[in-house]
Amino acid sequence: MARPLRVAALASGRGSNLAALIAARDAGQLPIEFTLVGSDRAQAGALDVATAAGIPTLALNPKDYPSRAAFDAALFDRIAQSGAELLVLAGFMRIVDAAVVSAWEGRAINVHPSLLPKYRGLHTHRRCLEAGDAEHGASVHYVTAELDGGPVVAQARIAVRTGDTEADLAERLLVEEHKLLPAVVGAIAMGRLRWQDGPVFDEAPLTRPLDLGEL
């Protein structure tokens, strides 16, 4: 049996997507080993989730560094030192320096709560409702220097219902995120999804986002 994929994660919030990855691993559905969970917030719930699962944690304060680039370099250096082969941004709420990101090309993914390329950045649920969209969704993409602009590998969709609020959309979409992210990480861990000058899935260049049923 092949050894588990070594994975590190970065998160700024409560860590529900991290918890979904851990649950999938513990259920025997995800052949991964966590090397580190890092955050820019010492009080992030994700660190508690990681500690409870026996995963090493790291919290660095951006204010302790002279620049954003210096902070990012220090954080990603620690990720590299952990031996991670894949970095998962699971609710990490910072824009990462382009030079730092470039060193992780093809080895870092992010989950974002919109159907990219729609609604990069913040307040995606609000923007979906304001636009009158009939559907909303989540995307997993490879991380590049462009904010939420890397190649999208998979998406999950939900219908927007009459009377939906931002909170309604967020709650329903999170259920789908918790399926989508483990599925993508699993595809990478099993060698079905990889990077070769761009995303390759089942040995063919990926030309459109996959849906959950294809992973």
Key attributes of the depicted protein:
single chain, 215 residues, alpha/beta, Rossmann fold, 7-stranded mixed sheet, 3-stranded antiparallel sheet, 33% helix, globular, GART_AS, Formyl_transf_N_sf, Formyl_transf_N
Query: Count the helices. How many?
Result: 6
What is the topology, as strand order, of the major beta sheet?
A: 3-2-1-4-5-6-7
Number of strands: 10
Give the CATH architecture.
Answer: 3-Layer(aba) Sandwich
How much of the residues is beta strand, in percent? 15-25%
Ranges with pLDDT <50 over ≥5 residues?
Answer: none
CATH topology: Rossmann fold
> Helix fraction?
25-40%
Output the radius of gyration. Answer: 17 Å
| Helix and strand sequence | EHEHEHEHEHEEHEEE
How many structural domains? Answer: 1
Question: Could you give me the name of the CATH homologous superfamily?
Answer: Formyl transferase, N-terminal domain
Given the C-alpha coordinates, what overall shape results? Answer: globular
CATH class: Alpha Beta
Overall residue-averaged pLDDT value: 96
Structural write-up:
- By secondary structure, this protein is of the alpha/beta class.
- The protein has a single domain (5-122, 138-157, 178-214), classed as Formyl transferase, N-terminal domain (Rossmann fold, 3-Layer(aba) Sandwich), CATH 3.40.50.
- Helices cover 33% and strands 23% of the residues.
- It contains six helices and ten strands.
- The chain has helices at 16-26, 45-52, 68-81, 98-102, 124-131, 166-189, and strands at 5-10, 32-39, 57-59, 86-89, 108-112, 135-142, 152-159, 193-195, 199-201, 204-205.
- Helix 1 (16-26) packs across helix 6 (166-189).
- The longest helix has 24 residues, at 166-189.
- The chain is globular and about 45 Å long.
- The model has no long low-confidence stretch (mean pLDDT 96).
